[in-house]
Amino acid sequence: MRITAIDHITPESRLAKPIYAGDGRILLQIGARLTGRIVERLREKGITYVYVQQEGTEDLDDEGTLDPKVRAASMQVIESQFKKAAEQMALQKTVDMDAMSSSFSAIVTSVLEEVMKQKEAVSLLTDVVAYDSYIFHHSLNVTIYALSLGKTLGLNEEEMHKLGLGAVLHDIGKMSVPEEVLHKPGRLTDEEFALIQDHTTIGFEMLRKSHTLSLLTAHCAYQHHERLDGSGYPRGIGKEDIHLFARIIAIADVFDAVTSHRVYRPAMLPHEGLELLYSGAGTLFDQEMVDAFARTIAIYPVGLEVRLNGGRTGIVSALNRSLPARPVVRVFQEHGESVSPYEVDLAEELSSMIESCDTVMAQRTM
């Protein structure tokens, strides 16, 4: 299988991994032919890449981070409960988080079980899912990334559960923001941006009134846009005042945001998202946490075409859990000429390194 940008699918391409709907239904099975009409429908759903079949890669596979059934069940709860909160806010009622907290706690428990079982570096690229709303799947993805980073950092079970609750609810305040502002494709006005920024305070006020959620959960919503140098919002506080969990969620939040399709820009690849985090490491984000995150995620996922030094081109065929930046690559070209495929384990062959990724994916406008 090979990762291919949706805009560069060639005629007669066939799927190598299924595409799921948000409720867990399979929209397209393995082997489905990607006609122009199907590609257009996928583009409308916000899908920017798919896994296609390619000769010589039939044995490659990556099972993904989350069981599709767990993902679907989690998504359904997040969507229904977030919409219920939005309805109560629209009626100017107090949002009853106590009635919802057990549902969110159950999500965290099931996702945490999946994360703890995960042996490979985390890659949500492997879960190609068509969603109707960004905010719901973003909340779940941030939970997965935050818990995975928490695992790498050595948090205990109780801390992990609290972190997961803070992550899944970090954007609950956005349910107060008008749809036309949340999904605006163009530049936001100052007034619209202020509405977006208010989601941190609104989420905090909503969550802190709950008798069944900890105040820490509320502070995760309040602080996840704060930055170490004080340049964040809503209060502009610095590192010493930002809770550990909020600093973790901040990294997960930004990474998922930039590696997910948005109406105003296409998705970055994982290594591009990581580069963005590193550009703010030590000033915006905790340096040690960014380093830990780099060890947690699959920077170069299975199926990605890469170019190695020495004029070789290949496809990532396996991950190295201890060194995600140095995967196993199946080389099929040398200096532009086809060769019999062979494997290069970058964790063992230290003189070999990835110089660049598939230009089809990497030359997109950021």
Automatic annotation (TrEMBL):
**What organism does this protein naturally occur in?**
Alkalicoccus urumqiensis
Q: Gene3D superfamilies annotated for this entry?
A: Hypothetical protein af1432
Q: What is this protein called?
A: HD-GYP domain-containing protein
* InterPro entries reported in the protein's UniProt record: HD/PDEase_dom, HD_GYP_dom, HDIG_dom
Q: Spell out the Pfam families in the cross-references.
A: HD_5
> What PROSITE patterns would the database entry show?
HD_GYP
Which residues does the UniProt record annotate as the domain HD-GYP?
113-309
Supply the SUPFAM superfamilies for this chain. HD-domain/PDEase-like
Give the SMART domains listed for this entry: HDc (SM00471)
